[in-house]
Amino acid sequence: MYIKEDLKYFSLEPEISDKTLTIHYNNHYLNYLKKLNSLLKEYDVKYTKEELFKHIDEFNIKDRDKILFNLGGVVNHELYFNSISNLKNNKPIKSIEIAINKDYGNYNNFKKEFKDKALELTGSGYTFLVINKEGNLQIVNMSNQESPYLYGMIPILTLDLWEHSYYLDYQNNKEKYIDAFFKIIDFDKINTTYEKNKI
Question: What pLDDT digit, counting tens, does each position of 148-175 carry?
């Protein structure tokens, strides 16, 4: 079983209200974690959350879809919360800056492509910056609680585009929310994740 993660969040106002962040963390993320723990309590789980995606066939077929959905809900939210902070480290640094410049030309090109990709997403889901199987950066959309880990990709930056992540603050103005997200990205943490996982 997975115990509650030691995720800490701080005020991200004015980009994200305290009310939205509190509801997002306590009502959505922790609910996925509670359900995942409940589903896994009958199994002797020896894998990390990320490894579970590769070993889902080892679980009873009646539980697989529910495990995957709630596992995605946990992992994707943790990635999202790890992508943002109030420290305003919102410009690429070190290795991730080099990689972004290599794969996108410059940060402004990357930002535009990420935003365009996020605006393409229909329904609920996430936009990810991942390390793909070739070791390059790639921007991908995933629906609902799908995870890049299912496809052999490693997510390093995550934007939550479920309505609960922005509707109280921005209603249906998804573009304004995406612009706000770029003001609170913590590229210090993104760089650490990238350096840990780059090929």
Answer: 999 999 999 999 999 999 999 999 999 9
**Count of beta carbons in the 10 Å neighbourhood of residue 19:** 11
Residue 187 neighbours by CB under 8 Å, 6+ apart: 89, 90, 91, 92, 93, 96, 97
Sheet strands (E) in 52-151 = 125-131, 137-143
| Closest by Cα among 156, 116, 115 to 136 | 156
Q: The pTM is what? A: 0.92
Rg (C-alpha) for the chain, rounded Å, is 17
CATH architecture of structural domain 14-199: 3-Layer(bab) Sandwich (3.55)
Extents of the domains making up the chain? 14-199
